[in-house]
Design a protein that fits this description.
The complex is a heterodimer.
Chain A: H1 3-7, H2 27-44, H3 46-58, H4 60-68, H5 79-109, H6 114-139
Helix pairs in contact in A: 2-5, 2-6, 3-4, 5-6
Chain B: E1 3-5, E2 9-11, H1 18-44, H2 51-59, H3 61-89, H4 93-119
Antiparallel strand pairs in B: 1-2
Helix pairs in contact in B: 1-3, 3-4
Classes of the chains: A mainly alpha, B mainly alpha.
Pfam families (chain B): Sdh_cyt
Protein name (chain B): Succinate dehydrogenase hydrophobic membrane anchor subunit
Binding site for heme (chain B): 77
């Protein structure tokens, strides 16, 4: 065994607070964990999505309630919070979509090299965050 | 009866997740194509996007047909994904089973609601 391999830390029972914080997260690791986070978030927010789908389609009257939700809110929830939750949904969808396409592409072309993993993960993060900013600016009426 | 494949893998007869793996990819492809198709319809529509244009997109019978397929794909996809999360992080069987059942109820409820929205249009 070489000197280098001896010094590498070994993790057995991983402690979420003690060990995970010492991990150096690579771009691919971020894409991976955020894929999970965004998926779970979208699952939790599914009733909101279906409600928005319902309001936007059922009638002209409900459509007005749908558009009003972003200004005057839904019930006791203020419009600003509705917009923020929607921004999270937009990010979640974009990240999950792009990271998912990356998965499918890797499966189809067997692109499993370290370099491709790294570069495609960076592209995923830049694209998803960039598009979130663009669409978020539209959502908050900046243009 | 167990059969050895190669030197390490012992196949004992249970399923090994290949079905879920494939389901996840097939449903993902369907949803991705649907997203592009819906976006195209919104972008290619003429005039400002109001109720008429939006409801018009979903009122076509073929669009309802497609959307229903995608609603099912989405919920199946979510079930496979969320179940994976519980299986990875939640070890006590009682808590895991409870979470599985809650997830199923949650997803079936949302699917039913989405279905009714689509077909009352």
């Amino acid at each position: 065994m070489t000197e280098l391999s001896k010094k590498r830390p070994e993790f057995r029972n991983i402690n979420a607070f003690k060990d995970l914080t010492t991990y150096r997260m690579t771009a691919a690791a971020w894409v991976s964990i955020l894929h999970r986070v965004s998926g779970l978030l979208m699952c939790l927010l599914l009733p909101l999505v279906v409600w928005l789908f319902d309001m936007s389609l059922t009638s002209e009257l409900s459509y007005e309630r749908f558009t009003a939700a972003f200004d005057s809110g839904i019930g006791f929830v203020p419009g600003l919070l509705v917009k923020l939750v929607l921004l999270v949904l937009i990010w979640g969808y974009l990240h999950h979509f792009i990271a998912g396409v990356r998965h499918l592409y890797m499966d189809m072309t067997h692109s499993v090299s370290k370099e491709f993993g790294k570069s495609s993960a960076s592209v995923t993060l830049v694209l998803s965050l960039g598009l979130t900013v663009v669409l978020g600016a539209k959502l908050f009426g900046l243009y | 009866m167990s059969v050895n494949y190669g030197s390490k893998r012992v196949v004992t007869g249970a399923h090994y997740g290949i079905r879920d793996w494939l389901v996840q990819r097939v449903t993902a492809t369907l949803m991705a194509l649907f997203t592009v198709a819906l976006l195209a319809q919104v972008i290619l529509s003429s005039g400002p996007i109001g109720y008429e244009v939006w409801a018009g997109i979903f009122a076509a019978q073929w669009m309802k047909f497609l959307t229903f397929g995608v609603i099912l794909a989405l919920h199946w996809h979510a079930w496979v994904g969320v179940r994976d999360i519980w299986m990875d992080y939640v070890k006590p069987a009682a808590i895991r089973l409870t979470l599985h059942v809650l997830t199923l109820v949650w997803l079936v409820g949302c699917a039913g609601w989405a279905y009714s929205v689509l077909w009352k249009l």
